[in-house]
Automatic annotation (TrEMBL):
L-glutamate binds at R49. This is Phosphoserine aminotransferase. Keywords: Amino-acid biosynthesis, Aminotransferase, Cytoplasm, Pyridoxal phosphate, Pyridoxine biosynthesis, Serine biosynthesis, Transferase. Pyridoxal 5'-phosphate binds at A83, T84, W110, T160, D180, Q203, N245, T246. The lineage of its organism: Bacteria, Pseudomonadati, Pseudomonadota, Betaproteobacteria, Burkholderiales. Residues 13-352 form the Aminotransferase class V domain. Pathway: Cofactor biosynthesis; pyridoxine 5'-phosphate biosynthesis; pyridoxine 5'-phosphate from D-erythrose 4-phosphate: step 3/5; Amino-acid biosynthesis; L-serine biosynthesis; L-serine from 3-phospho-D-glycerate: step 2/3. The gene is serC. Homodimer. It catalyses: 4-(phosphooxy)-L-threonine + 2-oxoglutarate = (R)-3-hydroxy-2-oxo-4-phosphooxybutanoate + L-glutamate; O-phospho-L-serine + 2-oxoglutarate = 3-phosphooxypyruvate + L-glutamate. It is an enzyme of class 2 (transferase). Belongs to the class-V pyridoxal-phosphate-dependent aminotransferase family. SerC subfamily.
Amino acid sequence: MKTVSVRERNQLNFSGGPGALPESVLRQLQEAIHAVPEVGLSILGISHRSDWFAAVVAELQSNIRGLLGLPPSYHVLFLQGGATQQFSMVPMALLAGRSRPADYLQTGYWSGKALPEARREGPVRVVWSGQACGFGRLPRDEELDFASDAAYLHYVSNETVEGLQFHRVIGRDEVPRVCDMSSDFLSAPGEFGRFSMIYAHAQKNIGPSGVTVVVLKDGLLDGAPDAMPGFLDYRRQIEAGSIFNTPPVFAIYAVLLVTRWLRDDVGGLAAMGGINAAKARLLYRALDRADGFYRPRAAVPDRSTMNVAFTLASPELEKRFLAEAEDAGFSGLAGHRSVGGIRASIYNGLQLGAVEKLVGFMDDYRRRHR
Ligand SMILES: *Cc1c(COP(=O)(O)O)cnc(C)c1O
């Protein structure tokens, strides 16, 4: 740590979440905490009923639709309770009181967390589970037998803990697709119009914790139960324009700044996807050329461009890796507490240069401990 400046350390943040944010966004947030230039008040003390905040919400809705290439018939909501609250809100609206089961995929830690919450509300069919293979891979198309009359299909596009990512859209077009994109939202282009609902909390890829973006197609809620708690009812949230109660003003503003950065500085999702793919390629190449010294967790076709998870030959080597990495200024490299090992999370805000430095460290560590 002695040789690493605070700024450099901030740029070497490989945390699984909350993740690293772009430097320019951090600077604007710093200024906004003192005073938002257009308003002359600290962002921490601006009313959520102000004209300024109404404009923030409107611009952010439009930026998200624009980046995803979605028409105005998709509602864009900013909710609280994290992705975890969506594990409940989704089946409360789309499953409770129905007779047809919802199709769920169990591909890792987070999709597994969604299951018991859905079962509380109605019948669930697990289409495929990766439990037997230790969540080391995702299903192939021929292993997936989706029901044509399922209430909806739920899956996680990027399993943050295991480092597994779907590189295709799955499911039947006649069944509503609901996807938790918390850890790869706005990281690359995609066919987002094929989803009826997408949700993603901000803190992995697009902002601080405190806000969850929910994008949903108009009409999806037509059969939702009448009596639901207002706060947990998407229809009430839509009516209120995401200001059902006091929203997380700061977090929403931070996400707005990230969407502006994505559009204006990075150049859109295609450019972002290119940068993210380059970062992932560098890291996986470093793992693959290590002759088994580093052991990637994910099967090659399912490797995540956001979370690169691997192990070493022994717990001692891993412990030492983490300690030496910390000394060299890298942070957040410990694997999720449920699986251990190492995980380099390389979200949008983490620069290519940081990955190059990590690869240099990894090659050097391997030479010294081989
Ligand atoms: C981190 C994560 C969650 C949990 O999110 P909370 O906001 O803490 O509730 C859910 N899903 C995915 C894919 C995640 O990566």
